[in-house]
Amino acid sequence: MTASSMGTGSTGATTAATIHIKSFAYSGPDSVPAGSTVTVMNMDTEAHTLTADDGSFEAVAKAGTSVTFTAPSKPGAFAYHCTYHSNMHGTLTVK
Ligand SMILES: [Cu+2]
């Protein structure tokens, strides 16, 4: 019999996640913990928003700034978009 499960040693229970916006596209973590604080960092020279399609969260980030919002408290996949640029879409997975 072999016991081969080692812990992964990750740190912190509610480590902050960051979603970057660059070149009119979102890139971020695959998932965030429910109710955690998520940072949106806008690296473009135009303002963007990260707005949930169902209105459950919204962050407005001016050019070159970062803002935070609180992830939904229930797990699920939440589609979001930018209210300024209708071609910008992403999905936030909450666990
Ligand atoms: Cu935008």
Describe this structure in words.
A hairpin with a 5-residue loop joins strand 4 (48-52) and strand 5 (58-61). The strands form 2 sheets. The protein has a 4-stranded mixed sheet with strand order 2-1-3-6, with no helix packed on it. With 95 residues, the chain is mainly beta. It has strands at 17-22, 25-27, 37-42, 48-52, 58-61, 66-70, 76-81, 89-94. The chain is built from no helices and 8 strands. Copper (II) ion binds next to loops. Copper (II) ion binds at residues 48, 82, 84-85, 88.
Write the layout of secondary structure elements.
Elements: E1 17-22, E2 25-27, E3 37-42, E4 48-52, E5 58-61, E6 66-70, E7 76-81, E8 89-94
Bound molecules: copper (II) ion.
Give the count of helical stretches: 0
Series of H and E elements: EEEEEEEE
* CATH C-level: Mainly Beta
CATH superfamily: Cupredoxins -  blue copper proteins
Count of beta strands: 8
Radius of gyration: 15 Å
CATH architecture: Sandwich
For the biggest sheet, the summary is: 4 strands, mixed
| Ligand kinds | copper (II) ion
Number of domains: 1
Assembly state (oligomeric): single chain
The strands making up the biggest β-sheet line up spatially as 2-1-3-6
Distance between the termini: 33 Å
* Contiguous uncertain segments of 5+ residues: 2-13
Percent range for β-strand residues: 35-45%
